[in-house]
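Worked example 4.2. Below are the chains of a multi-component assembly; read each line carefully before continuing.
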Amino acid sequence: MLSFSDITAAYERIRRVVHRTPVLTSVSLDAIAGNALFFKCENFQRVGAFKFRGAYNKLASLTPEERKRGVVAFSSGNHAQGVALAARLLGVSARIVMPTDSPSPKMEATRGYGADVVEYDRIKEDREAIGRRIAEEEGRILVPPFNDEFIMAGQGTIGLEMAEQIGELDCVFFPVGGGGLISGNAVALKHLMPNVRIVGVETERGNDVFLSFRKGEIVTIPVPETIADGMRTTAPGPLTFEVIRKRVDDIVLVSDSEVVDAMRLIYERMKIVVEPTAAVPFAAVLKNDRNLRGRKIGIVLSGGNIDLENFFSLLHKSVR
Amino acid sequence: MLSFSDITAAYERIRRVVHRTPVLTSVSLDAIAGNALFFKCENFQRVGAFKFRGAYNKLASLTPEERKRGVVAFSSGNHAQGVALAARLLGVSARIVMPTDSPSPKMEATRGYGADVVEYDRIKEDREAIGRRIAEEEGRILVPPFNDEFIMAGQGTIGLEMAEQIGELDCVFFPVGGGGLISGNAVALKHLMPNVRIVGVETERGNDVFLSFRKGEIVTIPVPETIADGMRTTAPGPLTFEVIRKRVDDIVLVSDSEVVDAMRLIYERMKIVVEPTAAVPFAAVLKNDRNLRGRKIGIVLSGGNIDLENFFSLLHKSVR
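Applying the procedure described above to all two chains together yields the following structure tokens:
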């Protein structure tokens, strides 16, 4: 299983290239939440999301021979950009499999980092199969989005920075997609703060990890329709789930509309833009199922990649 | 004239209540600008703008007798909220003179901090006269928006933090309204970094300080129509202008549409929301009249108070 030393080793590899993202606080949000909140702003990370940490750690861990072979990844989101930038920085060739109907800014950004984008038809083709075929035919290394200990360890470096920047916390909330972010950080934080509670949050429709956690084994759901596009995973991975089962204290759910309310509050009070997935843990803190009061709570804002039109239409629809 | 020790004294007064705002960097904006940029994020300051620093310093410097008399200020913008919050924290009664047609969120925020808002008709009445009358009739202390050495010294504490957070800089760009921000910081930064160049930026239509700087004496213009509402001042003050004349290296101009382009880039690449006034110095850095290359440049993002509708409509209009 992933260990603390995997994460400190990852930090040695990535610390000179990642942003040490700031931790923001807001007196008015503390008053609303009834707790002291510490927002770790990975929306300010390179490529606009935490995914760069894991991708860079993975690529920097490849042997010289593997680097020469190049990499391939499949993603319509932040992982694509993370792998593309890491590859460019390390001089590795990258092909990224993306659906033809991906938002054009994401495709452009991925190409902008120098990756070769392989488009596919989301309806007729299976991106994982395409990725594996390219890996096999071209001898490229497949860079999975979450179920990989180098990826998990890279994401876990967020916890190292939070411990240094904030000190002891009572509870830390994470968004959960495939589980790479929460698993790496659960290992990091439980080591550094033995009493911390680690809580993962999903949206009600993207509840694969919630169901798996409750059942004690991996549950697969159909591709969920949720505004939190980082949560359109259908199941945790064997590696991430092993850590989640052992190190995470709870997985809770919020609705899509609670996520939009959380995005708006973050915009209004903190002056920052986060994508829906990133607002999910704050939505859970506002909902406060656990009835916390007067605690020190960490919240990971995982990314800020949402274009202006989407941002506005989401928030505008629900202006009260 | 304002001295460096005024600013360190101000920092002693305010350091426990202000946010030490983060400095953000962006590799992609560095590439676009051809310089290494350091954004000091006062949009994350309490009340969403640097104005809280000066207001708190001013109120914390009042004698016990003066505090009992209460304060009065006139402002339709961030100064109102800065004074209101400082007053609440120090247990001082505050009346704020605001035009009846002020944006309702700003009025609500000012009332939310516990200040008494005195509305007036922008067409028929003179807010300065109303403010002075209230000060006289009620014995309140008038808190001016910029032309006051305690206000200037409070704003200058930004420069102290920048020196600690970034180290030596080649050049620092500020937005200029009445000159409180740039004058305080010119004194702080020229003391800490003797070779730094201090550049103020106004919009073409709000060019009162530009004209005054060129002429060497205070020039008054009619109330300018510019999207940078922090620049709707008609003249610098005698105290701020004295410092600007002696300590500022240049004042340059940008157009309103260059400001909108800068706001959009800040949104897209940095994932933060700034008000138009705050984007003005970055617009000048992009325009790069001085043809800087490979320099370390500081940019003060002065505030983030813009509501979603305005933000969207400004950026949307000019989407390319």
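Take a moment to check your reading of the output against the notes. The first strand of chain B starts at residue 23 and ends at 24. The beta strands of chain B are 23-24, 36-41, 71-74, 94-99, 116-120, 141-142, 171-175, 197-203, 250-254, 296-301.
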